[in-house]
Request: fold
Amino acid sequence: NAGVTQTPKFQVLKTGQSMTLQCAQDMNHNSMYWYRQDPGMGLRLIYYSASEGTTDKGEVPNGYNVSRLNKREFSLRLESAAPSQTSVYFCASSSDRGSDTQYFGPGTRLTVL
Amino acid sequence: SQKIEQNSEALNIQEGKTATLTCNYTNYSPAYLQWYRQDPGRGPVFLLLIRENEKEKRKERLKVTFDTTLKQSLFHITASQPADSATYLCALDISYGQNFVFGPGTRLSVLP
Reply:
């Protein structure tokens, strides 16, 4: 059981470049989430997906798009990266029960120059 | 405005003492409140969950309380050990598993 996996672990982009962060979980969870974590600000929700085929905006969705490819995979795309998107990105998953915990991936450290 | 705060950015305590961390929030009505531990360079790891109708929850050396009137949760680690040193995050479930709000975290250092 790998849990939640994320690729890549590190990435450096130039302003205006695009990239996709990949996330996969093997726990048969319905819900998946993308967060960003910045110093002093805690984790902020970018997008979440309550089930395959559905996505909803979180607190900070601007500049990002997501795809829930299937039940296992949830990707985050930056179409035109900006320095303000320099952050650590975490993917998480949970069962569809409201009282369940979230399981987090190891994170992707992204720097936009 | 809606806000979630944790009492301090950093907390230092002596080994063996009880560490108490605070999470305060305004203008939310969470169904659940969770506490997570995060080590440097890693993702958060779930520790405890407490529901809005529960006053207290325990797990080994950990205890969490939840006062919905004060809009506050306290997280206690008894008989603290250097291995407990980490950042602790509180998180509000504000939409029954669909949406979570995290606090900024408290970095705990347990000194030998």
In short: Chain B touches chain A at residues 4, 9, 31-32, 34, 41-46, 49, 51, 89, 91, 93, 96-105 (CB under 8 Å). The first strand of chain B starts at residue 3 and ends at 6.
